[in-house]
Design goal:
39% of the residues are buried. The chain is built from ten helices and eleven strands. It is an alpha/beta fold and 353 residues long. The strands form two sheets. It has a six-stranded mixed beta sheet, sandwiched between helices. Strand 10 and strand 11 form a beta hairpin. The protein has two domains: 228 residues, Aminopeptidase (3-Layer(aba) Sandwich); 78 residues, Alpha-Beta Plaits, CATH 3.30.70. The chain is 42% helix and 20% strand. Its EC number is 3.5.1.28. Keywords: Hydrolase. Pfam families: Amidase_3. This is N-acetylmuramoyl-L-alanine amidase.
């Protein structure tokens, strides 16, 4: 065999190996973000003295989109609406799920009877911890009554009935820690870069977040019921400040997400040379406290394995020693937990993703 042929084979081998590593790394990068301007069309959202929520949040969302496409061109940015149209809640979630989004960002403006209340807050999916949080969820979920046959579509859920929200107590948000991480980044930007009053990261039962299968938040950029905040949110400079804050939070979250998973992947590839025993499992729940053996994932799966990471308790099912093998089990688990995903462990510590 000639030297030229040997060199050709060597070049082909290296190219295939590098491409394979690049493809594996790409799998664990944050690639797609869905921006969801709340309300629209016949659903005005909250109404202030001079402005409507649906118009303010659309303008802010479009600016976020433009910033992302300009400064993060590698990121796929998808909008649930780009004009004044009505989009049902389940349709917003469908857009995110069908595009395999890595992050869902729903943008809203708040309203309350007390006009002196002001500030920005970001919600993740969960059970409300106060009546105030419950009222915010009721307000945002009330849009479903504008949809045809909403009782059948949302399985009898009544947005005005407190008892309906018990379903969120029984849910274990698989992406709770990632959602809280991004929500904290948003609030940090609002407080430190825009000078908004920080009302914190909170949990409440939002249907649009329940239906999505990725980390997601619902941002309340301010209170339209407060005269000064309405004026700020409706101004061009206010929209620029708020949109740039959300953009920077997405940028920072993406950088952290990509770096963390890249480090795990490099560590995995290096250690795999010495030890190929990676255990692949499917994560099905995350909780801030241990889940009793007869609740949550234990009711749906016989094989449940718990591990603790930081302040969170996480639960997986299935066990395989190759990614291809665990992938075969994924559709079966997704039928029960749509937002489940694959994780890898070595010696009891998570290494993928």
């Amino acid at each position: 065999m000639s030297r030229v042929v040997l060199l050709s084979f060597l070049f082909l081998f290296i190219a295939v190996k590098v491409y394979g590593q690049a493809s594996e790394a790409e799998r664990f990068r944050l690639k797609t973000v869905v921006i969801d301007p709340g309300h629209g069309g016949k659903d005005t959202g909250a109404i202030g003295r001079h402005h409507k929520e649906k118009d303010i949040v659309l303008d802010i969302a479009l600016k976020v989109r433009d910033y992302l496409r300009k400064y993060l061109p590698e990121l796929n940015v998808i909008m649930t609406r780009e004009e004044d149209v009505f989009v049902p809640l389940d349709e917003r979630a469908r857009i995110a799920n069908e595009n395999d989004a890595d992050l869902f960002v729903s943008i809203h403006a708040n309203s309350i009877r007390n006009p002196r209340i002001y500030g920005a807050e970001t919600f993740v999916l969960g059970l409300h911890r106060s009546e105030e949080n419950l009222e915010v969820a009721k307000k945002e979920n009330s849009v479903i009554v504008l949809e045809d046959d909403y009782k059948a579509k949302y399985e009898g859920f009544d947005p005005d009935l407190t008892e309906s929200y018990i379903i969120f107590e029984l849910m274990q948000n698989v992406y709770l820690d990632e959602s809280i991480s991004f929500a904290s980044a948003v609030q940090n930007q609002f407080k430190n870069r825009v000078g908004r009053y920080d009302r914190g990261v909170k949990q409440a039962g939002f249907l649009v977040l329940r239906e999505t299968s990725m980390p997601g938040v619902l941002i309340e950029v301010g209170f339209i019921s407060n005269r000064n905040e309405e004026r700020f949110m409706a101004s061009e400079s206010g929209k620029v400040y708020l949109a740039s804050a959300i953009f920077r939070a997405i940028r920072d979250y993406k950088e952290s997400f990509d770096a963390r998973n890249s480090n795990l992947l490099v560590q995995n590839n290096n250690e795999a040379i010495q030890n190929n025993e990676i255990q692949y499992r499917i994560q099905i729940a995350t909780s801030m406290k241990p889940i009793p053996k007869n609740e949550g994932p234990y009711k749906h799966f016989d094989d449940v394995w718990e591990y603790q990471e930081g302040n969170y308790y996480k639960y997986t099912t299935g066990l395989a020693y190759s990614y291809e093998e665990i992938e075969k089990l994924l559709p079966q688990v997704k039928a029960v937990v749509p937002d489940c995903f694959i994780v890898g462990f070595r010696n009891g510590e998570r290494v993928i993703p």
